[in-house]
TrEMBL record:
Keywords: DNA-binding, Transcription, Transcription regulation. GO terms for molecular function: DNA binding; DNA-binding transcription factor activity. This is GntR family transcriptional regulator. Residues 11-79 form the HTH gntR-type domain. PANTHER family: GNTR-FAMILY TRANSCRIPTIONAL REGULATOR (PTHR38445:SF7), HTH-TYPE TRANSCRIPTIONAL REPRESSOR YTRA (PTHR38445). Pfam families: GntR (PF00392).
Length: 124
């Protein structure tokens, strides 16, 4: 799994890690039950503090994306399809919100936006 840390980002490093791992789970790149790198291994690979990596894993666990088994490691949580769907829906809502704001800024009418959405949706 490739995680890219950006020093130019406004987000703390632990949030960048958590967000990229969550995206990998939501996209299916990380499947249910998949073993994650150990906290120490990931910290070493990214050349960051173990505390930062631990915080990212703790956040993912609190959100239900991963499970940690003492002595065995961390794994992608299973049985959370409803959670995954809800997270994806929130992501889609955010993208639609962004599109609506952009459309309003250039004077696109609601009916035009609906027409664009219908065309894009039907074209896929």
């Amino acid at each position: 799994m490739d995680i890219v840390i950006s020093n130019a980002s406004n987000k703390p490093i632990y949030e960048q890690i958590a967000e990229q791992m969550k995206d990998a789970v939501l996209s299916g790149a990380l499947e249910e039950g998949a073993a994650l790198p150990s906290i120490r291994a990931l910290a070493a690979d990214l050349r960051i503090s173990v505390i930062t990596t631990k915080r990212a894993y703790a956040e993912l666990e609190a959100q239900g994306f991963i499970e940690t088994v003492p002595g065995k490691g961390s794994f992608v949580a299973g049985g959370n399809q409803e959670l995954l769907r809800e997270e994806r829906l929130r992501h889609v809502e955010g993208l639609i919100d962004q599109a609506v704001r952009e459309a309003r800024s250039v004077g696109v009418e609601k009916s035009e936006l609906h027409e664009m959405l219908d065309m894009l949706f039907d074209g896929m």
